[in-house]
């Protein structure tokens, strides 16, 4: 309450209030000076209010005392409960953690005045989550309270924490929050096979790398802690099988490493070990992090194709061997226990000429055609062995047959030899043999018996596969005889001896004193070669191109001769002027009569056109004409004859423009050139009398006359 010493109690003064909340939150009784609050005050919203009060004369409004200021402080009461910063907390810790391991810290705040009593003093406690976790009452730190918490037993925990003010005393306000705690995995569980023995069956024909079966060791851990590596540690199939790990399923895949054979071994026993790849040393005390199991693999028998005794066969045979002679034998047998019989055949795709054949029962290969080493040295064929009971079971083997050489070819010159002689001349000739020369062939040379006594030359064998030819007489005359043919016998030293007779051509030529050839009266020593096929084709193409060019040139010249009489609009001769309005077309026989052109006197002056109806009769003006206009008739006949005999004229109707009017035309000249000279003397009024078809022309020329008159 406010009170002024000047207040006499007679109501002459009144009190007024101003400042924070005046008139709204705080009001004053202007007569008594009592200050009242209009609503509940909240310290957390505004703890202090500053107001100003004054007493004034009610009648004059003048203050009777100076303005007074006073402060209103709001005292706090415990009206706010503690509030956590989060509604839900999430935390995680590794499983098997020690007691007292930090998990997470929770925080709650109280809006009450911390300096006034215990209204803002918060104490934490755990309502749910014991005995696994605990919380420090003053800090809100949550810790583990139980040893060896195992994720595999329980992974999720929900803890409820309470925050209470007034230091936790009776009557204090409280708030709660939830903490979700997850145990993360550690590698504390070794892999374990669910069974100690596994059994699989596999056919002996299984390809290498094919899977036989899958085994899996279970690991309670997850992610990388559950990764397992499989290996074969021992067993009689250590080299026959392998094992790999499927990274997606953590299974061990057993595969075939080597070819299986039921007849050799039909049972394999393996010891397979599963080991964790990421081991935590802290938990080694729990035991070795690996496990082992026994795997039994039974090999099943399948019907297999025959197997040859060798992967390939090499045989040799002489080229002179008789037909149907055996050159070798291939053998194959059924590897199965049944030992089914085998039949043999030759793959004819490898022996298209059927040079060889085979005995289907014992596999002996024999010739069916003569052999020639000089034609083909090696024959590569394929032999097929198939079971008689099941021909689909077959296998193949290559057979390489080498043809050995025998002396069945006579030696001969490797090329055509030609030389010349002039006085004392000599020449060396070298002979070769087509037969194979492993140790080198030796050839002997001699003159043929028929030429040994009568020849003008002698032959000397040099014993080194060469021979020299010498002249027997001292002089030769090329005019008497220009060419000598010397038969030479070439023999080899193999068995049986083979020989052939070759001819050496010797020309007689003129030589200088040093023995250099100057000229021969016969053809040259080096024969010119004829034109090649390519050269002949090129010459023929040139001739064809030349002929085509001549034909095109002649056609162009002929086309130029057929140019029309009127080439351009500047032609000085009178042209035929075509109007769009020409009459009734081909059926209009009255529009134009060719007879009039041929015989001007045939014009019927009284005959009118049927295609137009003139308003008044108009007789066109005519000039005197000749009795018989023969020049026009001759001109037309000449042109008709030219068109009839022209081979280039089209075989259909065409328009021929003659551009010739003749002498004394009935219609007179239509040329605009003459009209220009006589335009001043012309009277075009008669065009109006020709009917509607000439209306346009009459208007055109009639307007010109009116312009001149004006």
Automatic annotation (TrEMBL):
<keyword id="KW-0472">Membrane</keyword>
<dbReference type="GO" id="GO:0008013">
    <property type="term" value="F:beta-catenin binding"/>
</dbReference>
<feature type="domain" description="Cadherin">
    <location>
        <begin position="309"/>
        <end position="413"/>
    </location>
</feature>
<protein>
    <recommendedName>
        <fullName>Cadherin-6</fullName>
    </recommendedName>
</protein>
<keyword id="KW-0812">Transmembrane</keyword>
<keyword id="KW-0479">Metal-binding</keyword>
<dbReference type="InterPro" id="IPR015919">
    <property type="entry name" value="Cadherin-like_sf"/>
</dbReference>
<dbReference type="GO" id="GO:0099560">
    <property type="term" value="P:synaptic membrane adhesion"/>
</dbReference>
<feature type="domain" description="Cadherin">
    <location>
        <begin position="85"/>
        <end position="193"/>
    </location>
</feature>
<dbReference type="GO" id="GO:0007156">
    <property type="term" value="P:homophilic cell adhesion via plasma membrane adhesion molecules"/>
</dbReference>
<dbReference type="GO" id="GO:0005912">
    <property type="term" value="C:adherens junction"/>
</dbReference>
<dbReference type="InterPro" id="IPR039808">
    <property type="entry name" value="Cadherin"/>
</dbReference>
<keyword id="KW-0165">Cleavage on pair of basic residues</keyword>
<dbReference type="InterPro" id="IPR002126">
    <property type="entry name" value="Cadherin-like_dom"/>
</dbReference>
<keyword id="KW-1003">Cell membrane</keyword>
<dbReference type="GO" id="GO:0045296">
    <property type="term" value="F:cadherin binding"/>
</dbReference>
<dbReference type="GO" id="GO:0005509">
    <property type="term" value="F:calcium ion binding"/>
</dbReference>
<feature type="domain" description="Cadherin">
    <location>
        <begin position="413"/>
        <end position="518"/>
    </location>
</feature>
<dbReference type="Pfam" id="PF00028">
    <property type="entry name" value="Cadherin"/>
</dbReference>
<comment type="function">
    <text>Cadherins are calcium-dependent cell adhesion proteins. They preferentially interact with themselves in a homophilic manner in connecting cells; cadherins may thus contribute to the sorting of heterogeneous cell types.</text>
</comment>
<keyword id="KW-0677">Repeat</keyword>
<dbReference type="GO" id="GO:0016339">
    <property type="term" value="P:calcium-dependent cell-cell adhesion via plasma membrane cell adhesion molecules"/>
</dbReference>
<keyword id="KW-0325">Glycoprotein</keyword>
<dbReference type="InterPro" id="IPR000233">
    <property type="entry name" value="Cadherin_Y-type_LIR"/>
</dbReference>
<feature type="domain" description="Cadherin">
    <location>
        <begin position="194"/>
        <end position="308"/>
    </location>
</feature>
<dbReference type="InterPro" id="IPR020894">
    <property type="entry name" value="Cadherin_CS"/>
</dbReference>
<dbReference type="GO" id="GO:0034332">
    <property type="term" value="P:adherens junction organization"/>
</dbReference>
<keyword id="KW-0106">Calcium</keyword>
<dbReference type="GO" id="GO:0044331">
    <property type="term" value="P:cell-cell adhesion mediated by cadherin"/>
</dbReference>
<keyword id="KW-0130">Cell adhesion</keyword>
<dbReference type="GO" id="GO:0016342">
    <property type="term" value="C:catenin complex"/>
</dbReference>
<dbReference type="GO" id="GO:0016477">
    <property type="term" value="P:cell migration"/>
</dbReference>
<dbReference type="GO" id="GO:0007043">
    <property type="term" value="P:cell-cell junction assembly"/>
</dbReference>
<dbReference type="GO" id="GO:0000902">
    <property type="term" value="P:cell morphogenesis"/>
</dbReference>
<dbReference type="Pfam" id="PF01049">
    <property type="entry name" value="CADH_Y-type_LIR"/>
</dbReference>
<feature type="transmembrane region" description="Helical">
    <location>
        <begin position="535"/>
        <end position="556"/>
    </location>
</feature>
<dbReference type="InterPro" id="IPR027397">
    <property type="entry name" value="Catenin-bd_sf"/>
</dbReference>
<feature type="domain" description="Cadherin">
    <location>
        <begin position="4"/>
        <end position="84"/>
    </location>
</feature>
<keyword id="KW-1133">Transmembrane helix</keyword>
<keyword id="KW-0732">Signal</keyword>
């Amino acid at each position: 309450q406010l009170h002024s010493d000047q207040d006499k109690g007679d109501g002459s003064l009144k009190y007024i209030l101003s400042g924070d909340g005046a008139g709204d939150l705080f009001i004053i009784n202007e007569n008594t000076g009592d200050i009242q609050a209009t609503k509940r005050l909240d310290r957390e919203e505004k703890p202090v209010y500053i107001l100003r009060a004054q007493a004034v004369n009610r009648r004059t409004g003048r203050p009777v005392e100076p303005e007074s200021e006073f402060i209103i402080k709001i005292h706090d009461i415990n009206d706010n409960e503690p509030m956590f910063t989060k509604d839900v907390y999430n935390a995680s810790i590794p499983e098997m953690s020690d007691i007292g391991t930090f998990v997470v810290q929770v925080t709650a705040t109280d809006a009450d005045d911390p300096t006034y009593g215990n209204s803002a003093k918060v104490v934490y406690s755990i309502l749910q989550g014991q005995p696994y976790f605990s919380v420090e009452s003053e800090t809100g730190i949550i810790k583990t309270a139980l040893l060896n918490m195992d994720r595999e037993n329980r992974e999720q925990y929900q803890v409820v924490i309470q925050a209470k003010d007034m230091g936790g005393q009776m009557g204090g306000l409280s708030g709660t929050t939830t903490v979700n705690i997850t145990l993360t995995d550690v590698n504390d569980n070794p892999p374990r096979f669910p069974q100690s023995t596994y059994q699989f069956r596999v056919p002996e024909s299984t390809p290498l790398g094919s899977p036989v079966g899958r085994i899996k060791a279970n690991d309670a851990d997850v992610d990388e802690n559950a990764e397992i590596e499989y290996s074969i540690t021992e067993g009689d199939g250590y080299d026959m099988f392998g094992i790999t790990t499927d990274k997606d399923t953590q299974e061990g895949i057993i595969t075939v490493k080597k070819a299986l054979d039921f007849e050799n071994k039909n049972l394999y026993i393996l010891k397979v070990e599963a080991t964790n790849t990421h081991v935590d040393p802290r938990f080694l005390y729990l035991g070795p992090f690996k496990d082992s199991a026994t795997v039994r693999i039974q090999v099943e028998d399948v019907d297999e194709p025959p197997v040859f005794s060798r992967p390939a066969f090499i045989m040799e045979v002489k080229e002179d061997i008789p037909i149907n002679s055996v050159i070798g034998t291939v053998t194959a047998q059924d590897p199965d226990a049944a030992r089914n019989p085998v039949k043999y055949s030759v793959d004819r795709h490898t022996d298209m000429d059927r040079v060889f054949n085979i005995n289907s029962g014992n596999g002996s290969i024999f010739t069916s055609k003569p052999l020639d080493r000089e034609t083909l040295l090696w024959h590569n064929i394929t032999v097929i062995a198939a079971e008689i009971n099941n021909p689909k079971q077959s296998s193949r083997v290559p057979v390489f047959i080498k043809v050995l050489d025998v002396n069945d070819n006579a030696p001969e010159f490797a090329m055509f030899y030609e030389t010349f002689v002039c006085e004392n001349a000599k020449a060396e000739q070298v002979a070769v043999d087509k037969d194979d020369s492993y140790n080198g062939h030796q050839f002997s040379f001699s003159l043929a018996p028929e030429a040994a006594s009568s020849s003008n030359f002698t032959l000397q064998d040099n014993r080194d596969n060469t021979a020299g030819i010498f002249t027997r007489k001292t002089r030769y005359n090329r005019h008497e005889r220009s060419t000598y043919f010397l038969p030479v016998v070439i023999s080899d030293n193999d068995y049986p001896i083979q020989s052939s007779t070759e001819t050496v051509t010797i020309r007689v030529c003129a030589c200088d004193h040093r023995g250099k050839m100057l000229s021969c009266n016969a053809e040259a020593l080096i024969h010119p070669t004829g034109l090649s096929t390519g050269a002949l084709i090129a010459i023929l193409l040139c001739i064809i191109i030349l002929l085509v060019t001549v034909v095109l040139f002649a056609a162009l010249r002929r086309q130029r001769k057929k140019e029309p009489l009127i080439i351009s609009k500047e032609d000085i001769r009178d042209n035929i002027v075509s109007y769009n309005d020409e009459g009734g077309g081909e059926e209009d026989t009255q529009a134009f009569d060719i007879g009039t052109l041929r015989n001007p006197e045939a014009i019927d002056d009284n005959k009118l056109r049927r295609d137009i109806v003139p308003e008044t009769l108009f007789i066109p003006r005519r000039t005197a004409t000749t009795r018989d206009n023969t020049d026009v008739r001759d001109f037309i006949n000449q042109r008709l004859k030219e068109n009839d005999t022209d081979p280039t004229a089209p075989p259909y109707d065409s328009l021929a423009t003659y551009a010739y009017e003749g002498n004394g035309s009935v219609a007179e000249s239509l040329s605009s050139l003459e009209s220009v000279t006589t335009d001043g003397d012309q009277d075009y009024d008669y065009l109006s009398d020709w009917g509607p078809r000439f209306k346009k022309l009459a208007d055109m020329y009639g307007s010109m006359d009116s312009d001149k008159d004006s």
